[in-house]
Amino acid sequence: MNIILIGPPGVGKGTQAKFLVEAYNIPQISTGDMLRANVRESTPLGNEAKQFMNAGQLVPDSVILGMMESRFNDSDCKSGYILDGFPRTIPQAEGLDNLLNNMGQQIDSVIVLDVNHEEIVKRLSSRWSCKECDTVYNLLFDPPTSEGICDKCEGALYQRDDDKTKTIRQRLEVYSRQTSPLIDFYIQKGLVETIDGAGKIDDVKERIFSVLS
Ligand code: AP5
């Protein structure tokens, strides 16, 4: 099963991807997580990406496509994957089509998650993530048991640099301008299921599983 999750920042792509990973036993491939790992390790790719990410802008398509080409070669991608945050522009979607053609693969489903932008600002300004295992919490909707500490691994929780209100609004603007045209791109291929991302995390999960089953 090869699934793409599309939606504005903070809509719940990463949260819902974890449920799909469990259900289908396939990896979540988050370009945001991959870029943040490169930034943490100060790789040349991370150093180039950091300035774009902190400004709420997209990292150049050529960088992302190079990174994804090498990720698809990993053995855990053989039985499928959940693409979270990729593709994000029409050139990335076209690049993905080329990579898939070369691998003899295709996308099975594109899940588009949607939530109003004020709710997104609220979600992202209260998001905290674990430095060690990347588990995501929300101080308002899904808090850790002990403040600042991960329930799963006891790692320290931190707030992402791009989750400041001004940067969140910039990311939303970039989404509307550069990423939302992808919805039509995939509608034309007959692959899109649109899901209401509002409400409880488990309710959104049920909506997604009902269209995939
Ligand atoms: P990336 O890491 O992909 O960020 P994003 O798309 O902006 O998405 P987020 O991770 O912020 O949100 P999400 O939808 O996963 O929400 P989550 O589940 O965490 O990208 C970051 C940056 O990297 C980009 O700005 C760009 O610079 C660069 N980049 C990445 N990919 C790129 C690409 N392909 N091309 C170019 N540049 C790229 O949920 C958010 C919060 O809400 C959490 O606290 C969660 O607990 C909570 N929550 C989730 N669901 C619910 C619910 N139903 N109710 C209440 N709270 C909820």
Structure write-up:
By secondary structure, the chain is an alpha/beta fold. It has nine helices and eight strands. It has helices at residues 13-24, 31-40, 44-54, 61-72, 90-103, 117-125, 165-179, 181-187, 201-212, and strands spanning 2-6, 28-30, 81-84, 109-114, 127-130, 136-138, 157-158, 192-196. A five-stranded parallel β-sheet has the order 2-3-1-4-8, with helices on both faces. Strands 6-5-7 form a three-stranded antiparallel β-sheet. A hairpin with a 5-residue loop joins strand 5 and strand 6 (136-138). Helix 1 (13-24) crosses helix 9 and helix 2 (31-40) crosses helix 3. It is globular, with a radius of gyration of 17 Å. It starts with a strand and ends with a helix. The model has no long low-confidence stretch (mean pLDDT 96). The structure holds BIS(adenosine)-5'-pentaphosphate (AP5). BIS(adenosine)-5'-pentaphosphate is lined by residues 7, 9-15, 30-32, 35, 52-53, 56-59, 64, 85-86, 88, 92, 123-124, 127, 136-138, 141-142, 162, 171, 200-201, 204.
